[in-house]
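Backbones bend. To wit:
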Amino acid sequence: MFEPGIIPDYFVNKRLGLLDSYWSVILFKAVNAWYLIILIRFFEEIPKELLEAAELDGANPFQVFWHLVLPLAKPALATISLFYLVFHWNEFFRAMIYLNDQGKWPLQVVLRQFVIDGDKVAIVGANNASNNTGASQIDLRSLKAGMILLTIVPILAIYPLILKFFTKGTMSGALKG
């Protein structure tokens, strides 16, 4: 699938001198408009009375934000963090376009090259593949299945850590007091 905005995005990165650097991949979607709208809506729903009460108690705007707004926003921030994590973990297309040096390729590009193209050299190295020794003797289908599992494990490991914020966020408005 080819995004319509990728051509001007490529030229912007080229003009800024970001081609073949990690910044071209990192800065892409650093601020997602949709996620920003979700956070703005969340912050708008914080009761004004709560903020006014903190100000009456003598809190300055920074203290209100740090001690009141951020703790209330943990579920929303955890959700957005999970969205960003999954998006950037699965992103390989931009790295394939912007990073020409194979030494700079992220894990997803190497795994994609191996799983889709069947390029065993990307995983085991050219020296081992030509000698047919070591890791190059592993069955190709088993190695592909292991690589696919490798892409899922980090997300599955982080999800239980963030799950507590989801349950707190859904239960926070259940009781009035």
